[in-house]
Amino acid sequence: MIYADNAATTPVSESVLKAMLPFFSEEFGNPSSLYSVGRRAKRALETARETVASCLNARPDEIFFTSGGSESDNWAVKMAARNGKKSGKTHLIATAFEHHAVLHSLSALEREGFSVTLLPVHENGIVRPEELEHALRPRTALVSVMTANNEIGTIQPIREIGEICRRRHVPFHTDAVQAAGVLPLDVRALGVDFLSLSAHKFHGPKGVGALFVRRGSGLSGMIDGGAQERGLRAGTENVAGIVGLAAALRESCEKAPENAARLSALRNRLIEGALAIPGARLNGDPEQRLPGNVNLSFEDLDGEALLLLLDQNGICASAGSACAAGSLEPSHVLRALGLAPQLARGSLRLTLSAQNAREDVDGILRVLPEAVRRVRAFASRSER
Ligand SMILES: *Cc1c(COP(=O)(O)O)cnc(C)c1O
């Protein structure tokens, strides 16, 4: 099997699994308990918080653990909206191709009376800081722009946007779920107030994430109940998962520069090979993109049929995002690029991680041209 769908999820690395295992058995304590097995769990939790903070250049008390990227996004957007509302600020800005965890949070807030501006991302899949600046109003409560897009991998000008938001005193959230582990993430340098992470996108376990909230941001809770996470998110902590998240983040932070260089070379090899297929084009900026992301469109091709054929050849890939897969609607990301529906329908996303080798890329390139040809031939036969 060649696994090339790392934007959907990644396998847990061996060392991360090893770090987690004791917390399912002998170190099973509840961090709120006062006896020693509980205290050890508490210590593991706080060590994990320090590790995450140091990877992000944040303070430990600015890190909150959640159930994943979706919850972090929901919490950040709704917390900032609630903060804004206190001073009559009811306008929110995001890009048109945010993850649904952000977009649907914004729709929920719209139903509560907030107004939302979605910025265009243009043909290259990159938001323009000057357009953001233009969209800001005195009543803007939040700007939310993802660090890198999950479908087309384009990297956004977060630092410039952060600068604008600082200058205009507008809180700024970034969904860094896809960027974590491959791009350097320094919350101070980026000028962000909220940043979302999800462990399973960087070789950690599923169902655990983190949210950075800059000190002084005005905190409000997500889940009512016990006093966990400083009384803001109740529920006994997912200790093993949190330990896994921290181990995975540290590992990928340390290796990020090395991994990024190796992955970009693999990605470019894959892009070059795929673009030799007639009627193929690359979606999103060729340079400002995640080191492991390849997103292609093929003319006259049914993307779903191609995926099935690739699967028969042992290749795991994706059409849009996994969340949109199975729906007949073309992905909102490809639509935001202004891609013709016919090209959006024939899209293919291949995403590589540090666990992929050159042989995987070569294996894909051996299968892909013939698979595209067969899907097209089949379609034109059934038209006749
Ligand atoms: C995967 C993903 C999410 C959701 O994370 P979960 O942990 O699966 O809830 C949010 N944003 C982006 C950009 C993602 O890729």
Name the features:
384 residues; Aspartate Aminotransferase, domain 2; 43% helix; Aspartate Aminotransferase, domain 1; single chain; seven-stranded mixed β-sheet; binds pyridoxal-5'-phosphate; 2 domains; three-stranded antiparallel β-sheet; 13% strand; alpha/beta; globular
* Total separate domains: 2
User: Any ligands, ions or cofactors bound here, and which?
Assistant: pyridoxal-5'-phosphate
- Give the oligomer, counting copies of the same chain as homo and different chains as hetero: single chain
- Let me know the number of strands: 12
Order of helices and strands: EHHEHEHEHEHEHEEHHEEHEHHEH
The helix content is 40-55%
N-C termini distance: 35 Å
Query: What summary fits the major beta sheet?
Result: 7 strands, mixed
Within CATH, the superfamily of the largest domain carries the name Type I PLP-dependent aspartate aminotransferase-like (Major domain)
CATH architecture of the largest domain: 3-Layer(aba) Sandwich
Under CATH, the topology of the largest domain can be stated as Aspartate Aminotransferase, domain 2
Which stretches are low in confidence, meaning pLDDT under 50 for 5 or more residues running? none
